[in-house]
């Protein structure tokens, strides 16, 4: 009941011309997916992911609340690994990423109609494939505006986006997350390219 009420609130018309609604879920909501799916059985689902080491590096710079033990309700994420030292935020991040990628791979196998997208494909490719998958027509004017906006950092809109990360020295703690990442990539690369 709360899910449907939340979706109704999020999808309120602003201009009176809207025909579709895009809802972005947080990563930890992967574990509530079956509940979400029951509430929205006909939605066009997209699983967007990023190389685990890049996510790990990003959280070293600025931790998201889901990468700090105890910041989310206990049932939101899998229990922390028992062998982690208190305060080992990098280890906890690796543990969470392992479970995120495992869950995404499970969903990709269970629901082959879900669109898989890798952050490395770039903002415009992600936008175009998502729009095609969801049946959303984008005008040339809107696409041009999106292209311009995509050149800037999402969290710091006045700053040009120039995030380049090296994949050297991937820690052993990310080994399982990396295995699931490569399995997801194999599935993604077998999917037909939306709009082509």
Question: How would you describe the overall organization of this protein?
Answer:
It is a single chain. The radius of gyration is 18 Å and the shape is globular. It contains 7 helices and 2 strands. A two-stranded parallel sheet has the order 1-2. With 196 residues, the chain is mainly α. The model has no long low-confidence stretch (mean pLDDT 89).
What's the layout of helices and strands?
Elements: H1 2-10, H2 33-39, E1 46-49, H3 52-61, H4 89-110, E2 115-118, H5 123-134, H6 140-149, H7 175-190
Parallel strand pairs: 1-2
Short synopsis of the structure:
With 196 residues, this protein is mainly α. Helix content is 44%, strand content 4%.
Trace the largest sheet across and list its strands: 1-2
- Please write the string of helix (H) and strand (E) elements: HHEHHEHHH
Computed structural class: mainly alpha
On the 0-100 scale, what is the average pLDDT?
89
The beta-strand count equals 2
Total of helices = 7
């Amino acid at each position: 009941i709360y899910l449907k009420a939340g979706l109704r609130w999020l999808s309120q018309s602003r201009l009176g011309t809207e025909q579709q609604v895009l809802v972005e879920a947080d990563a930890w909501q992967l574990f509530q997916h079956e509940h979400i799916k029951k509430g929205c059985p006909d939605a066009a689902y997209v699983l967007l992911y990023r190389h685990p080491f890049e996510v790990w590096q990003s959280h070293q710079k600025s931790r998201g609340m889901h990468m700090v033990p105890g910041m989310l309700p206990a049932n939101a994420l899998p229990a922390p690994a028992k062998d982690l030292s208190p305060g080992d935020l990098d280890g906890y991040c690796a543990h969470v990423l392992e479970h995120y990628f495992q869950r995404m791979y499970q969903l990709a196998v269970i629901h082959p109609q879900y669109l898989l997208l890798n952050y490395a494909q770039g903002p415009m490719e992600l936008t175009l494939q998502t729009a095609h998958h969801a049946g959303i027509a984008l005008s040339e004017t809107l696409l041009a505006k999106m292209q311009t906006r995509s050149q800037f950092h999402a969290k710091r809109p006045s700053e040009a986006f120039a995030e380049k990360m090296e994949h050297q020295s991937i820690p052993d703690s990310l080994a399982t997350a990396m295995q699931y990442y490569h399995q997801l990539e194999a599935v993604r690369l077998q999917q037909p390219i939306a709009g082509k």
